[in-house]
Design a protein that fits this description.
Helix content: 25-40%
CATH topology of one domain: Alpha-Beta Plaits
Strand content: 15-25%
Largest sheet: 4 strands, antiparallel
Structural class: alpha+beta
Distance between the termini: 100 Å
Shape: globular
Number of helices: 7
CATH class of one domain: Alpha Beta
Strand order of the largest sheet: 2-3-1-4
């Protein structure tokens, strides 16, 4: 008897949200049974999330995604997909090989820990330690000195300048000056096209 090397696969199972909520253990049992029939070794199996479907599947508008990692013989994958098609509880399945995925990303997916969560947790710990090490009064002094230096010295007497002729005070009944039109507009703009003049 010849033994075949099993490969690691990622399987995403889509089940009806109502059935998953009512009987979670039964739903997981159906998926484990499908994997067992394909002679697969389950590495990880967890709920990935519940989403609104882009289109109805079997008159269902919401679905629960169950992510699984398993080792199986490549020749048994077609049988696994056929079992899903015959199942009444599982609406869809997508099985992908994991050979091309980086090992660290794959390990994070299997354990359920995202790569973004690890650095943020480490950053939070470093920030808390840095805040404890600082003295509370040390930060206030430089900030006060910097604000005093940054403030411009105001002149003692300022002359009120009249507003520019183009500007109109808010609430004023005067209309702003109109832009020149026709030949005067062409002369007013130095880079205007001379062929655009009207005779």
């Amino acid at each position: 008897m010849e033994t075949v090397a099993k490969r690691l696969y990622e399987g995403m199972f889509l089940v009806d949200s109502g059935l998953a909520a009512a009987d979670w253990e039964g739903t997981v049992g159906v998926i484990e049974n499908i994997l067992k029939r394909a002679d697969a070794e389950v590495v990880a199996l967890r709920k990935w999330g519940e989403r609104r479907l882009a289109f109805e599947i079997a008159h269902k508008s919401r679905g629960t995604y169950i992510l699984s990692y398993f080792r199986a013989d490549p020749q048994r994958i077609a049988g696994l997909e056929k079992d899903v098609q015959l199942s009444e509880k599982v609406m869809r399945v997508l099985v992908l090989g994991t050979e091309k995925r980086p090992a660290d990303v794959l390990e994070a997916d299997i354990t359920g820990v995202t790569k973004e969560a690890e650095p943020k947790a480490a950053e939070g710990a470093e920030t808390a330690a840095a805040e404890k090490a600082e003295k509370p009064g040390a930060e206030e002094k430089p900030a006060q000195e910097a604000s005093a230096e940054a403030a411009p010295s105001a002149p003692e007497e300022t002359a009120a300048e009249p507003p520019a002729p183009e500007t109109v005070a808010a609430g004023s009944s005067e209309e702003p000056p109109k832009a020149p039109s026709g030949e005067a507009a062409a002369q007013a703009t130095p880079d205007s096209d001379q062929s655009a003049k009207t005779p």
